[in-house]
Amino acid sequence: MADSYNMKEFSSTAVITENGIFPSSISINTINTKCKENEVENAYEPFHNRKLEHPNSDIRSFANLLKSSLGSGILAMPAAFKNAGTIVGIFGTIILGYICTHCVFLLVKTSQDVCKETKVPSLGYAETVEAVFATGPQPLRKFSKAMRIFIDWAMAVTILGACAVYVILLVESVQQIVDYFYEKNNLTITLYCLMFLVPILLFTQIKNLKYIAPFSGFANVLLVLTFMICLYYICADFPSFDSRPMSVPVGRLPLFIGTVIFAMEGIGVVLPVENTMAKPQHFLGCPGVLNITMTIVVLLYMIMGILGYLRYGDAAEGSITLNLPTEEIPALMAKVFIILAIFFTYILQFYVPMEIVWRNTKHLVGQKYHNVAQGVMRAFFAIVTVIAAASLPRLEQVIGLEGAFFYSFLGLIAPSLMELIFCWDRGLGKFNYILIKDAILIVFGGFVLVTGVMQSIREIIRTT
């Protein structure tokens, strides 16, 4: 994806391609000269200087954002609720949904404001971080390029971690089917991972996004079908609401928070969606594309979580498809659908970190060796995700670890920190409310990161 985010002209009226963000290899200092401190605020309007080849309507932008936020993570919500309970799970999902939405708002709003400051039409996540540091308090400006590189690599590692989670789901789903039809088999988790390594190595060598994109549409159809089959089984034999505890020991809450954040966060695609809108001013605000989308996402995740938890209780697996009875045809179809959908999702997701890694390392390789280097790089990271999947035991624990460690930083801490740095010399609001609010969000994100990682590692060690 990242290479398709290229600009065709580096001017104040740049022509942006469909995905509409600046490539991370461009320094903010090369896009714009240093800003004058006393320039009239809002003299430059980024929205008016975007020339999009294929601008998206509000409806299409809503659909793109919804698709990016509604993925296989929704199938993990019943497992999240078993670490919270019914009432705590419902209100916890709503509160976390609001926090995640607000942090997305902070990222987009800060990006829009810093675009005005630096006089560029649009910026991606890493470029926004660089621009915020480059125009922030004087002592921080020297760190701007380093922060862009750090965020770039953090995003790459985060998505590779999600790819490892996909491999675990693939392995557990296939293992269930094989164990049902061939009960006396000697296949280990490592052997299952090796089975998937060959097709993964082949498909991850595809370097052109246009050859990968059709698989995304097919995967979305399969996910919808899987979701419908899961609802059929969940609602077929439905227990009463009071059959499950309203809350569970507080020590399990970090796993709930980490799983919900992992399932709900789509922080990496928010700016590309906003950057390609025909009317980007409709993205924020009330009702706004962001608020409408996230309201629907939170409701669907909450419904799936509570219904799945009421149905399966503490037996809820990391993906609800693993709870379905393999001996029944619809359930078997759902398991096959999720295997195909997750495999194709892996291929599409894998493309993004590879573009990030390549644009940060290609200067180290001679031009004539670029194709060979890319092939080796893709094979190496594909093998790393498979090894990680073979080393970690249970899906829901790895999801909680991934959400707590990576998504809490990129989705909660970084957006709050960006707004705080950007507003530091420009006004922190009445009674310094921006400072207080962002400090609370940063502390909360740090709490989620530390406690979520510790609890996830404890659970991984315990089950190992």
Please explain how this structure is put together.
Mean pLDDT is 82; it is low at 1-31 and 33-42. It contains 15 helices and two strands. With 464 residues, it is an all-alpha fold. The chain has a single domain, classed as Hydantoin permease (Orthogonal Bundle), CATH 1.10.4160. Residues 57-457 form the Amino acid transporter transmembrane domain. Pfam families: Aa_trans (PF01490). Keywords: Membrane, Transmembrane, Transmembrane helix. It is found in: Membrane.
Characteristic key phrases:
464 residues; mainly alpha; Hydantoin permease; two-stranded parallel ribbon; 2 strands; 66% helix; globular; disordered N terminus; AA_transpt_TM; L-amino acid transmembrane transporter activity; membrane; transmembrane
Provide the helix percentage.
55-70%
Looking at the overall shape, the CATH architecture is Orthogonal Bundle
The helix tally amounts to 15
Please summarize the sheet with the most strands: 2 strands, parallel
Shape: globular
Low-confidence stretches: 1-31, 33-42
Structural class: mainly alpha
Indicate how many domains the architecture comprises.
1
As a whole number of angstroms, the C-alpha radius of gyration is 22 Å
Average pLDDT rating: 82
The run of helices and strands is EHEHHHHHHHHHHHHHH
CA(first)-CA(last) distance: 37 Å
Sequence of strands across the biggest β-sheet: 1-2
CATH topology: Hydantoin permease
Range of strand content? under 5%
Question: In CATH, what is the class?
Answer: Mainly Alpha
Number of strands: 2
